[in-house]
Amino acid sequence: MLMAQAELVVRVERASATVVVSMKTPAFTAPEDTVYRGIVYRAQDAVAARRWRDAALLWQAALLTNADAGEHWHAYGQALYSTGRYREAIGAYQRGMQIGARQMDDALWNVARSYAQIGNRAQAIRWLEQSLARGVRTRRDVSAEPVFRRFARDERFRALIAETSRGSAAVDL
Known about the structure:
The protein is built from 8 helices and 2 strands; from the N terminus they run E-E-H-H-H-H-H-H-H-H. It has helices at 34-48, 52-65, 70-82, 86-98, 104-117, 121-133, 139-144, 155-165; strands at residues 5-14, 17-26. The protein has a two-stranded antiparallel ribbon.
């Protein structure tokens, strides 16, 4: 059964005050709706200002209205990653890839980084292989990324780096 209206509540915490915005919106609000656009603009501003908690809340609110925007899922993943919510970031990046976000290459890389952050070596290397196979990231990128340094002694990781440094973009998963 579809609801005629959905309630959207956005909480943005600032210093010692909490601002609560509550509004009733039709369940099938078009992406062009000014409320939706306002949330997206505020989310983009929060990302630009590196206010990651605010950005995560705002992107989540935007996705309540338009869950089919792959770029929003990617931005939500970025905000979650930047606040240390790596498991949630993985889900957001993967959802963005499922529905066709234009940032596919970045998403692959960021899923690998997220898995590395939570200590899941096998998944981190699996996603890193996919990222390198697409040719967007290089051995230098991997070497410069601090989160992958913990894998320096891992055989599979070293083989991947050696294969990448020989110029082979194809990685057999």
